[in-house]
């Protein structure tokens, strides 16, 4: 599977709101892909999908540009990575 084939497409239409301070916030819910680093790939790691809520904001960026500020992942996805709840 090529990494170019893995698209981060939200499962639902994103919600975009403009705050009173003029900044935009976008919330996207969906299945996203985690691409291993070249070092992890050398150890046999493969790309895998996970469920998450991503929050983007235009605060502190160029006009009309949004950057990812936060990602809330499904807790089950973290359990497989050695994290404890």
Task: Give a description of the structure.
By secondary structure, the protein is mainly beta. It has one domain (3-79). It is built from 2 helices and 5 strands, in the order E-E-E-H-E-E-H. The protein has helices spanning 38-42, 75-79, and strands spanning 9-10, 15-18, 24-34, 48-57, 67-73. Strands 1, 2, 3, 4 and 5 form a 5-stranded antiparallel sheet that branches. Strand 2 and strand 3 (24-34) form a beta hairpin. The longest helix has 5 residues, at 38-42. The chain is elongated and about 50 Å long. 5% of the residues are buried. The model has no long low-confidence stretch (mean pLDDT 79).
Brief write-up:
This protein has 85 residues and is mainly beta. The chain is 12% helix and 40% strand.
- First-last Cα distance: 31 Å
**Helix-and-strand structural type:** mainly beta
Low-confidence stretches: none
Strand content: 35-45%
Order of helices and strands: EEEHEEH
Shape designation: elongated
C-alpha Rg (nearest Å): 15 Å
Helix content: 10-25%
The number of helices is 2
**Secondary structure tally: strands:** 5
| Nearest-integer average pLDDT | 79
> Quick one: biggest sheet?
5 strands, antiparallel
Q: Count structural domains.
A: 1
Write the SSE topology:
Elements (H helix, E strand, L loop, with lengths): L8 E2 L4 E4 L5 E11 L3 H5 L5 E10 L9 E7 L1 H5 L6
List key phrases describing it:
85 residues, mainly beta, 2 helices
């Amino acid at each position: 599977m090529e990494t170019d084939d893995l698209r981060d497409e939200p499962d639902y239409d994103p919600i975009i709101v403009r705050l009173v301070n003029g900044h935009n916030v976008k919330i996207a819910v969906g299945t996203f892909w985690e691409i291993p680093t070249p070092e992890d790939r050398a150890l046999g790691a493969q790309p895998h999908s996970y469920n998450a809520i991503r929050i983007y904001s235009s605060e502190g960026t160029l006009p009309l540009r949004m950057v990812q500020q936060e990602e809330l992942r499904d807790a089950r996805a973290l359990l497989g990575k050695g994290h404890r709840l």
